[in-house]
Amino acid sequence: MTIDNTTMPTRAWTPRAAVQLTVLSSAAFVYVTAEMVPVGAMPDIASDLRVSAALVGTLLAGYALVAAVTTVPLVRLTAHWPRRRTLIVTLMCLTASQLISALAPNFAVLAGGRVLCAVTHGLMWSVIAPIGARLVPATHTARATTAIYVGTTLALVTVAAAAVTIAAWATLPPMALAAGDAGSARTGQRHHRNRRLVTLSGLTLLGVTGHFISYTFIVLIIRDVVGVRGPQLAWLLAGFGIAGLLGMAVMARPSDRHAKASVVGCLTAMTTAFAVLTVLAVDRHIEATTIAAGAAAILLWGAASTALSPVLQAAAMRSAPSDPDGASGLYVTAFQIGIMAGSLLGGLLYEQGGAALMVGASAAAVAIALGAVAATRSLFGIRPGNQQEVTFDTPSR
């Protein structure tokens, strides 16, 4: 397959590409904000709707389940659509779901609004990274993906979603796949036989499960393990996101050149952070040194976990250059299953053994993923000729 030079850029970063990547990053921002609302607002949602924190945690698990089930079928169903149209449809669903959620009088209506958003969540993540990758040369895939993921760390949503929908229509090219490539995408390109992609997706599932076992209840960890409460809790939660921004900035260039080392470094940092939090959870004496160590672990966790995701998705796309959307869809499905499993396991472990058991399980799962990544060969390497060779038709707006 060949690349349509009227669509693909010849220079890495142009003003137009910067604007387009900013729009994509904004789309990521509103979607992730919508998905993760129960994490940051868990106590408030539980109080307002008179339900338990564990039940609020199931909102995240249920969202991930719906996304995992619908991602691959929707990617195949919409394979012949121009990529811009696909993205805009997902953003329209997001806008409607946030309006429903904002006006929800009870837990059931809130859950229904989240289902509408979850249906197209996986589809959005399956196409948004490939769209970004196609706006820059193939040598900058990870950096373009990282630029999009900036929005996830900034993760208001109803108005923002509507604004981003309009911006996406106005700034992005249609990106219609050529007929032959669309047909290949609809058939799935036998991604289940792509050993590199399947291995990567499996390791992603394990690592994401470990992350979300604790992340689902991060507010409770900051409050009960680190010992930070009140307004300071919100500041430390914001610090988690800011650390993620800095982590992605530091890892953006190495992610393209040294993908495996970047993944190993991020997993090592996450394992260390969870180990520190486990020790603090076992020794429940809250004092100045505990707060300092716990806060440092939270920031390290935020930096590493946020920087890791774009590296993994870029590697997934590189594993199937003729159908990056389909490969991305399988990766996103694994990611969502990991969110679901982690959320459910986190709630169960927290109820049975408290924060120490929950954070310890995260440390163990991420450590296993780290060992597996370190033992693999050629999982993150760029194969010769792997230049995301996708042809686009160029219809007018």
Shape: globular
Proportion of residues in extended strands: under 5%
Kindly state the number of beta strands.
2
Instruction: Tell me the series of helices and strands, N- to C-terminal.
Output: HHHHHHHEHHHHHHHE
The main pleated sheet reads as: 2 strands, antiparallel
The residue ranges in which pLDDT falls below 50 over 5 or more consecutive positions are 1-7, 384-397
CATH architecture: Up-down Bundle
Oligomer state equals single chain
Strand order of the largest sheet: 1-2
Decide which structural class fits the backbone.
mainly alpha
The first-to-last residue Cα distance is 24 Å
Helix percent band? over 70%
- State the CATH superfamily name: MFS general substrate transporter like domains
CATH class equals Mainly Alpha
What tags apply to this protein structure?
397 residues, mainly alpha, Growth Hormone, Chain: A, two-stranded antiparallel sheet, disordered C terminus
Any chance you could write out the topology, listing elements then pairs?
Elements: H1 15-40, H2 42-49, H3 53-77, H4 83-102, H5 107-134, H6 141-154, H7 157-171, E1 176-177, H8 179-187, H9 195-215, H10 218-226, H11 231-257, H12 259-282, H13 288-318, H14 324-375, E2 392-393
Antiparallel strand pairs: 1-2
